[in-house]
């Protein structure tokens, strides 16, 4: 095993924001060894081939992981541990949103009120979602976005902790993370009408804080990012690509008021890549690092103070830990 060069693992690294982060990391950190942790072998191989074209000497590998399936996460951990003795950056980026429609009534009602900036920044109240339960009897958005990643981090702990080099855990959270959609009495957000994605991203923010409390003294730092609104398969699942292309000029105008209207993945990945170039000890665990792009097209990172509570974070951590133990017993003993 080559221990000298840096290693980055990216979940959902084959498409959208994850793929752009992969490309930019290879440029920013020459010699970096990259692991694309993806659920689909063909799509992962296509991404690897594209990255290898622009970075012919880069060392890139693929690990198959479906974060909505805990058995698959355990298998991926075994593979990652065989490949790497230390991880410098782990991007917890894979994510889904199960949208079935947009509430256009709410959109028109809010457009000419003072709440319009909040609506365009967060999407709060605009999206209709549907729930799905996985074959392991877990809520799918919660598992894909949060619990699968929790298990990944927990099982990889020995590879993240290294006496001399720090490790950065970098989550792709969202402005859509809203406290009013989250409850410690129902962390999976089961049997609720909507708010599944929002609850999962709020959990992400809490979990990141809880991880810092547990792991900072071992050289592991966790931070949350927000890519803003970016055109990817996720947004094409909300509205068709022709619609987004049509309203591109509106995005430029909206940027005067809403600098998170990033549109492309390069703009959206700014905060995620910027974090990899910072001393992790100097970063604020109570901040969300947001990718901004102004009207003139200038990219920069904005820090938003997180409105979350350490006690909630610890309670969420404990519940995730208890849930994980059940799967550990089932699959690992
Ligand atoms: N686009 C946006 O405006 C915003 C996105 N985000 C977040 O950014 C992250 C990346 O999303 P984005 O790039 O937009 O969307 P994409 O759909 O383009 O990318 C999502 C990535 O996650 C992977 N993925 C989805 N489900 C699983 C799973 N069960 N196991 C493993 N990988 C999985 C996808 O794989 P596959 O290609 O096989 O489907 C894909 O690689 C998400 O966490 C999302 O919530 C946050 C704020 C705004
Ligand atoms: C004229 C115009 C831009 C119409 C689009 C209205 C809505 C469909 C979007 C307005 C704000 C968007 C938004 C998201 C999805 C699409 C909107 C609701 C997200 C929720 C997508 C996923 C995220 O993580 C955050 C985004 C916030 C903004």
Written overview of the protein:
- This protein has about 325 residues and is of the alpha/beta class.
- It has a single domain, classed as Rossmann fold (3-Layer(aba) Sandwich).
- Helix content is about 45%, strand content about 15%.
- The strands form two sheets. Strands 3-2-1-4-7-8-9-10 form an eight-stranded mixed β-sheet, with helices on both faces. Strands 5-6 form a two-stranded antiparallel ribbon.
- Helix 1 packs parallel to helix 12 and helix 7 crosses helix 13.
- The longest helix is centred in the C-terminal third of the chain and has 23 residues.
- It is globular.
- The two termini are about 30 Å apart.
- Bound molecules: NADPH dihydro-nicotinamide-adenine-dinucleotide phosphate (NDP) and the ligand CC(C)=CCC[C@@H](C)[C@H]1CC[C@H]2C3=C(CC[C@]12C)[C@@]1(C)CCC(=O)C[C@@H]1CC3.
Summarize the structure.
The chain has 333 residues and is an alpha/beta fold. The protein contains 13 helices and ten strands.
Provide the structure class: alpha/beta
Number of domains: 1
- Name the CATH superfamily classification: NAD(P)-binding Rossmann-like Domain
Indicate the low-confidence ranges by residue numbers.
none
CATH class: Alpha Beta
Bound molecules: NADPH dihydro-nicotinamide-adenine-dinucleotide phosphate, the ligand CC(C)=CCC[C@@H](C)[C@H]1CC[C@H]2C3=C(CC[C@]12C)[C@@]1(C)CCC(=O)C[C@@H]1CC3
**Beta-strand segment tally:** 10
| Total helical segments | 13
Average pLDDT level: 96
- Please write the string of helix (H) and strand (E) elements: EHEHEHEEHHEHEHEHHHHHEEH
Largest sheet: 8 strands, mixed
Strand arrangement, largest sheet?
3-2-1-4-7-8-9-10
Overall 3D shape:
globular
Strand proportion: 15-25%
How much helicity do the residues have? 40-55%
InterPro entries: 3KSR/17beta-HSD (IPR052834), NAD(P)-bd_dom_sf (IPR036291), SDR_fam (IPR002347)
GO cellular component, one term: endoplasmic reticulum membrane
GO biological process, one term: estrogen biosynthetic process
Keywords: Endoplasmic reticulum, Glycoprotein, Lipid biosynthesis, Lipid metabolism, Membrane, NAD, NADP, Oxidoreductase, Steroid biosynthesis, Transmembrane, Transmembrane helix
């Amino acid at each position: 095993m080559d221990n000298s060069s840096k290693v980055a693992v990216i979940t959902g690294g084959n498409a959208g924001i994850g793929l752009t982060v992969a490309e930019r990391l290879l440029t920013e950190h020459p010699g970096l060894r990259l692991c694309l942790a993806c659920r689909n072998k063909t799509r992962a191989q296509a991404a690897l081939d594209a990255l290898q074209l622009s970075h012919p000497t880069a060392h890139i590998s693929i690990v198959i992981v479906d974060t909505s399936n805990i058995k698959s996460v355990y298998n991926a951990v075994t593979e990652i541990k065989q490949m790497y003795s230390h991880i410098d950056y782990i991007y917890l980026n894979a994510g889904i949103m199960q949208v079935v429609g947009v509430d256009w009534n709410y959109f028109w009602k809010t457009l000419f009120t003072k709440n319009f900036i909040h609506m365009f920044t967060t999407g709060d109240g605009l999206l209709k979602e549907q729930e799905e339960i996985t074959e392991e009897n877990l809520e799918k958005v919660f598992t894909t976005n949060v619990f699968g990643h929790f298990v990944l981090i927990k099982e990889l702990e020995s590879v993240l902790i290294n006496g001399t080099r720090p490790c950065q855990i970098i989550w792709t959270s969202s402005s859509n993370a809203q406290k009013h959609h989250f409850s410690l009495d129902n962390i999976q957000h089961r049997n609720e009408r909507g708010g599944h994605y929002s609850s999962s991203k709020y959990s992400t923010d809490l979990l990141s804080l809880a991880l810092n409390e547990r792991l900072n003294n071992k050289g592991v730092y966790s931070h949350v990012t927000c890519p803003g609104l970016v055109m990817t398969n996720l947004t094409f699942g909300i509205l068709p690509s022709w619609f987004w292309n049509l309203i591109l000029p509106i995005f430029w105008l909206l940027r005067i008021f809403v600098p998170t209207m990033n549109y492309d993945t390069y703009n959206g990945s700014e905060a995620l890549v910027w974090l990899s170039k910072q001393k992790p000890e100097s970063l604020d665990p109570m901040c969300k690092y947001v990718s901004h792009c102004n009207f003139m097209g200038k990219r920069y990172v904005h820090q938003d103070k997180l409105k979350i509570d350490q006690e909630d974070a610890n309670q969420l951590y404990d519940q995730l830990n208890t849930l994980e133990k059940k799967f550990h017993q089932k699959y690992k003993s």
